[in-house]
Amino acid sequence: MKNPNQTADKQKGTAPPIGIKGLQDVKYQIERAPEDERQGVPFTGTVMADELPLNCRTPAIAKYDGAIGSFQEFHSLFLHQFASSRKLQKTELSLFAVRQKDDEPLKEYLQRFNAGALEVPAATQEVKATAFFQGLLDGDFFKSLAKKSVSKFDALLARAVKYINMEEAQAAKKDSRGEKRKEIREEAPSKKPRGDIRDRKPPFQRVNAVYTPLTVPITQAFIAVEKKGIDNVTPVMERHAPTS
């Protein structure tokens, strides 16, 4: 039956851990070694004096795959990995990449710019003011700075606060107008579609003309008309009065 403390790690590419028995053997060999040979052993006297716990074993260590052939190659690979994992500090040029987006309020653009400026502590007041102006959209604040420029970023912030308040006031006024129009539409009586009005009109009815019934045949009536000299009379069809 296998000792559970000596169970080898079967994972490919790793060295099997050493159990308690193996560690005790190593410790025993170190204790018996001469004093001059113990100098290179990574165990202090305190560690050697302590008893090893029963469940103690070494961790599984990945085996060396032979990929590195020299210390110079190891040194080069280490520096490359260290340099690639290192977070590079941003420069002043990164501030010129911060630009105001379309339909972005001045307040939000200023917040984004300040967040980027905190990552560049070496940026001067002049550089920050220039970068902020370059990223502005063509609006009221841009035109104001174009007419009267500032060289210090703190002075630019003081002027920006005024235009931020103006934008917020305009947005609030626009929202209040929209709410008022919505209330008026909701309170106004709904208009019925034109189709309903047309439906209420009675349909067109042809009116049948009713004439006085003749007491003589129509042929005799035309003969009498000719005798009296009445011209340009067009014969018409005989009409009968509706029977009651």
UniProtKB/TrEMBL annotation:
Domain (Retrotransposon gag): residue spans on this chain: 66-137
Top-level taxon of origin: Eukaryota
Pfam families named among the record's database cross-references: Retrotrans_gag
Record's compositionally biased regions (Basic and acidic residues): 171-202
Location of region: Disordered: 1-21, 171-204
PANTHER family per the UniProt record, alphabetical: AMINOTRANSFERASE-LIKE PLANT MOBILE DOMAIN-CONTAINING PROTEIN, CCHC-TYPE DOMAIN-CONTAINING PROTEIN
Name the record gives this protein: Retrotransposon gag domain-containing protein
Source species: Sesamum radiatum
